[in-house]
Design brief:
Chain lengths: ~230, ~230
């Protein structure tokens, strides 16, 4: 697997992992697309580790995520000097370093507001936990949902939101309520100390720039796809 | 609502809508982020039309999607000359023009493969139809799902995929199967004439560049959010 064209040259024999402050430094320099790619590398590296692979080079890793080896090397060099010339990268160390930068070293407490069919799917989704995201509570206004347990999480009454925020002090919230409710709920989340919102409601949240928001609009994703198909014609 | 600083100057009194070939031309020049923003404008314009609003200027539209008026004007000028100095934009014409560029003038036939909890949520999602996306069929391998009807769509046996592709000649497919099945199913979809895939499976599809793929990985979106929260600290 290793190839000699790979990785940043390191005179030293050691492959140091990143310290917390290294991670903080490299975080500032990472452009948005690189963050997306690191997340994809991370996903593949997890799979490789599960399959018993110990090392990988930039060509192999690039192939797994449809990215050129040069881009892989550039992205990973932003993490510090974690590759070894002629050996490539140690899967375990890469997972640690990327996880550190992406914040998966931290245990993130997450709450879900809105348990419709999408919220239901999110509660059942098994991909969050191992990335360090723990769904600690879910809330909905529908009496048929309240009190049920989905994916191991009990659904609480939406009116208890302030109490839930105070009990768990979650970092992040997933917002899966209808568009017309989203602004009001987002305001309550921020007032309760939430610093990041993953917003599935098809509307633009207008919040202080201190609050991080990532929007996922399923219909917009289909539009992007249709656009991309037309461009290829 | 109109303000005089708004829109590209048009000497003519008419606000022409875009012809199909105009749309094809402007499509080539649109960078990816502009496509995403057009999709957001489109969403807000629909809401405005439903609320009875007839015209809007770039400042107002920008405010609705957290974008500066200058960016709005630049994005919309790529659609051709559809604004009027001192009047702003006609909501109806903007919807038509953006819809044309994004491909929502076309009726897209879409199939869904994989009716787990996410697939279930996608079938119940009401945001696709009015953007021109019609879910014509859904398939799953789970006997408990096969034959049930969700969101008005009957779930068929996954083994009938080739038949479904031949019956409906769909343009697009939504892939919501487990990662380990995704590559195989994607291959069958492409063999059956699908030209675009919205991929929810947490894996990178390796397909011909003639096939458009948009990936949505829910765990990666949470990672992006956590990264963004850390950057603000």
């Amino acid at each position: 697997m290793p190839d000699s064209s790979d990785a940043a040259p390191i005179p030293d024999d050691e492959s140091p992992s990143l310290s917390a402050s290294d991670a903080a430094i490299s975080r500032r320099n990472l452009p948005e697309p690189a963050v997306g790619r690191l997340s994809l590398y991370y996903r593949e590296l997890y799979r490789l580790r599960d399959a018993g692979t110990h090392s990988i080079n930039s060509r192999e890793l690039g192939k797994l995520v449809n990215v050129s080896p040069a881009v892989v090397r550039r992205d990973l060099s932003a993490l510090g000097t974690i590759g070894r010339r002629g050996v490539g990268y140690t899967v375990e160390l890469l997972i640690e370093a990327i996880g550190g930068v992406l914040g998966s070293g931290h245990q993130w407490q997450v709450i879900l507001v809105g348990v419709g069919s999408l919220g239901d799917a999110l509660l059942r989704y098994r991909g969050f936990e191992r990335l360090g995201f723990r769904l600690v509570s879910a809330l909905d206004a529908n009496p048929d949902r309240i009190g049920t347990s989905i994916g191991g999480v009990r659904v609480r009454d939406a009116s208890e939101l302030a109490q839930v925020l105070s009990d768990f002090s979650p970092d992040l919230a997933i917002l899966a309520v209808p568009a017309e409710k989203a602004g009001e709920v987002a305001g309550e989340l921020v007032a309760g100390g939430i610093t990041g919102i993953l917003n599935f409601a098809p509307t633009t949240l207008r919040l202080s720039s201190a609050i991080a928001v990532v929007n996922v609009d399923l219909a917009s994703e289909l539009q992007r796809l249709a656009f991309s198909v037309q461009q290829r014609k």
